[in-house]
Amino acid sequence: MVLGRILGAVTGDAGRVEPADLGPRFAEALLPGEQVLAAFRTVRDGFALTDWRLMVLDRQGITGSKTTILSIPYKSIQRFSVEAGGTTELDEELKVWDRSGADPLEFGFRRGSGAAMAAQALLAERLRGA
Asked: Where are the beta strands (DSSP E) in the chain?
């Protein structure tokens, strides 16, 4: 288990974390009363599913001190997919397309962590009500 976490940190595989682990800039971007349903983090970046949007944190530069926070309301998400790892793959991937027509947002997960399925289940639940 510890080895898996170390490998995930080195390779950038996302894993489920506490919302506070995404840092103070993430907390500042939340609206009063907005609830975080789940948060996921890679080595530098992360994303969260709140009660009304998907928030993506993109840290830039060598130190990661400059952070872009992308907000996508659930009503703007058109589709998503989960690519589950096979016997030789070590990762799974969640892709999310929004109405902008841009390339999908892609989030990599370590296979077997359960994070990809947890993220897609929450996303499906939120989109069902959107």
From this structure: 15-17, 36-41, 46-50, 53-60, 66-73, 77-83, 91-98, 105-110
Q: φ, ψ for residue 114 (rounded to 5)?
A: 80, -5
% helix, strand, coil for the chain, step of 5: 30, 40, 30
Query: Looking at residue 29, which CATH number applies to its domain?
Result: 2.30.29.50
Which tens digit of pLDDT belongs to each residue from 10-67?
Answer: 555 568 889 988 888 889 999 999 999 999 987 667 899 999 999 998 877 666 677 8
Given a cut of 50, whether residue 3 has pLDDT beyond it is no
Q: Which domain holds residue 114?
A: 2-128
Identify the pLDDT of residue 8: 52
Closest CA to 9 of 20, 21, 19: 21
pLDDT at residue 86 greater than cutoff 60? yes
Query: Which single residue is written with the structure tokens 């506490």?
Result: 18
Helix (H) or strand (E) holding 118: helix 115-128
Q: Two tokens at 42?
A: 């890679």
When divided into structural domains, the chain yields a total of 1
